[in-house]
Amino acid sequence: MASIVSHIIYAKKYFEKLETGEIKNGRVENLDKDEFILGCVFPDIRSIAEEITRQDSHLHFNPIDLNFKNLTSFEAGWKFHLYCDMKRDEILNKYNFYNLKNTTDFYSGSAKLLEDELVYNEYANWEKLILYFNHPPYIKTDLDIDKNTFQLWYAMAAKYMERKPDNKSMRVFLSKLPKRAKKARNIVESVSELRENKKACELLLQVKEEIV
Question: Can you say how many angstroms the Cα of residue 134 is from the centroid of all Cα atoms in its chain?
């Protein structure tokens, strides 16, 4: 399950640390921030491209770290997504998050959607990013995603990002994903239950503090 908003917030934090000099090594040469963000949302295109497996999109780089030397901005964003997925689980496991009720519902999809809701306001310029996602430059990869699927994924992401995620927007987004559509209502109900768990919300917010 894609956690589109959260990955963008993590990218924003990475950019901030680049600017303050806290991250010095493994930088992208001539970094294009918009293209980096495009890349960091890319791996979950498998949600609509059913011929792409998780292994195809999420085990694409080795090792998975913050060394982006010799990568394009898009490739670096893609690798950053994989790093954040790995680091996020490390953080949540450290705090025993998955021992809390509802946190593993639908392969932790409910927790990822709630996380999007919790961190949404950390980004101040969604309008610009939405415009960019609605007209993305087509970037061909060795996963051989066709242009129409590529553009559709980012248009779906743009629609999802139009406002702070809530039950309605989550349900609409899920209904467009082949593997999630039939369970959309149940997933959103699980999000509602998890939203009432104060400890779970606190730990999901902690990810943002420690991810980079």
Answer: 17
> Counting beta carbons within 10 angstroms of the beta carbon of residue 27, is it exposed (0 to 12), middle (13 to 18) or buried (19 or more)?
middle
Span 144-175, pLDDT tens digits: 899 999 999 999 999 999 999 999 999 999 99
Which residues, 6 or more positions from 139, have their beta carbon under 8 angstroms from its beta carbon? 35, 38, 39, 74, 150
The Cα–Cα gap between 9 and 123 comes to 6
- Is 63 in contact with 158 (CB distance < 8 Å)? no
Structure tokens at 97: 């998050």
Task: Return the DSSP state at 179.
Answer: T
Average pLDDT over the chain, rounded to whole?
95
CA 210 – CA 72 distance, rounded (Å)? 25
Distance CA 159, CA 85 (A): 23
What is the C-alpha separation between 94 and 100, in angstroms, rounded? 13
Q: How many CB atoms lie within 10 A of CB 54?
A: 10
Structure tokens at 167: 């039950």
Alpha carbons 105 and 98: distance in angstroms, whole number: 10
Q: Each residue of 22-36: pLDDT tens digit?
A: 998 899 989 999 999
Q: How confident is the model at residue 179 (pLDDT cuts 50, 70, 90)?
A: confident
